[in-house]
Amino acid sequence: RFIACPQLARTVQRCLQGGASPGPRPVLLECAPGPGILTRTLLNAGVRVVALESNSAFLPNLQSLENSLDGQLKVIYGDFFRLDPLVTGTVKPPAMCSDKLFETMGVAAVPWRADVPLKIFGILPQKKERNTLWRLLFALYECSSIYRYGRVELNIFISEKEYKV
């Protein structure tokens, strides 16, 4: 569920930074960073990262890294793939609502004609993979959830099986 190879982390970092336009850089939301190998690679390249981690075992290490930096990294306990659940009432972490997430990240809504305010990177969990992909597509069509804030660049690894479908 996370990148463990430093060489792959450098490749992903170069791809995420490729084609960067002049001006303010978008925030990168890293879903389930795990031990933080990609996170450190991105930080070393000067990227502003928000790490959204749902596994409490990885939180202390990430929070220690956050405390050693000056605002370049923000660690949030949550699960991107359980964003905006279809329940009424209080949402229990690691599930969360996109408006609360964007408020915590400090990302404001921009018009769709504006540049990308947010890049998202993650590895889609194979459990309910197809359902999660459909939810992301329907949210895009409806301009709801993460898409209420403008264009969002999704960089998500999926299984070869789903890719072929």
UniProtKB/TrEMBL annotation:
Keyword RNA-binding found: yes
This protein's encoding gene: Tfb2m
Record lineage: Eukaryota, Metazoa, Chordata, Craniata, Vertebrata
GO cellular component: mitochondrial matrix
Enzyme Commission designation: 2.1.1.-
Annotated family: Belongs to the class I-like SAM-binding methyltransferase superfamily. rRNA adenine N(6)-methyltransferase family.
Binding site for S-adenosyl-L-methionine: 3, 53, 79
Origin: domain of life: Eukaryota
Subcellular location: Mitochondrion
Record's keyword terms, sorted: Methyltransferase, Mitochondrion, RNA-binding, rRNA processing, S-adenosyl-L-methionine, Transcription, Transcription regulation, Transferase, Transit peptide
GO terms assigned for molecular function: mitochondrial transcription factor activity; RNA binding; rRNA (adenine-N6,N6-)-dimethyltransferase activity
Name by which UniProt lists this protein: rRNA adenine N(6)-methyltransferase
An individual GO BP term: transcription initiation at mitochondrial promoter
Pfam family, one: RrnaAD
